[in-house]
Automatic annotation (TrEMBL):
PROSITE patterns: PROTEIN_KINASE_ATP. The keyword Iron does not apply. SUPFAM superfamilies: Protein kinase-like (PK-like). Keywords: ATP-binding, Kinase, Nucleotide-binding, Transferase. Gene3D superfamilies: Phosphorylase Kinase, domain 1. This is BnaC09g38140D protein.
């Protein structure tokens, strides 16, 4: 088992080289993902509704000049007590 863990790089030598120990965990993933956009960059000046679902409406807006579909939660559902 030790050999298997070593071969997968899960174990490494301790600092003084006397024994193997688990590798330190990588740093946590940052909260803001790189695919997350800043809502302030959405341009709704020529927005048009293009669809509606149970929880929200879909509007065509622009992000950095690119047309995008934005789902906006229905205001009737925006009360925290109703959001699951
Ligand atoms: N990316 C998109 N581009 C164009 N139209 C879209 C896009 N996403 C949704 N729509 C339109 O909006 C309608 C509703 O989409 P939505 O994702 O809200 O549906 P839903 O999954 O049924 O909704 P809900 O999860 O709120 O019940 C779609 O049927 C479609 O006509």
């Amino acid at each position: 088992m030790i050999e298997l863990l070593k071969s997968h790089g899960v174990l490494s030598y301790s600092q003084n080289g006397s024994h193997f120990e688990p590798k330190p965990l990588p740093p946590p993933i940052p909260k803001k993902c790189d695919w997350e956009i800043d809502p302030a960059e959405l341009d709704f000046s020529n927005a048009a509704m293009i669809g509606k679902g149970l929880f929200g409406e879909i509007v065509k807006a622009y992000w950095r000049g690119t047309p995008v579909a934005v789902k906006r939660m229905l205001s009737s559902l925006s009360d925290d007590r109703l959001v699951m």
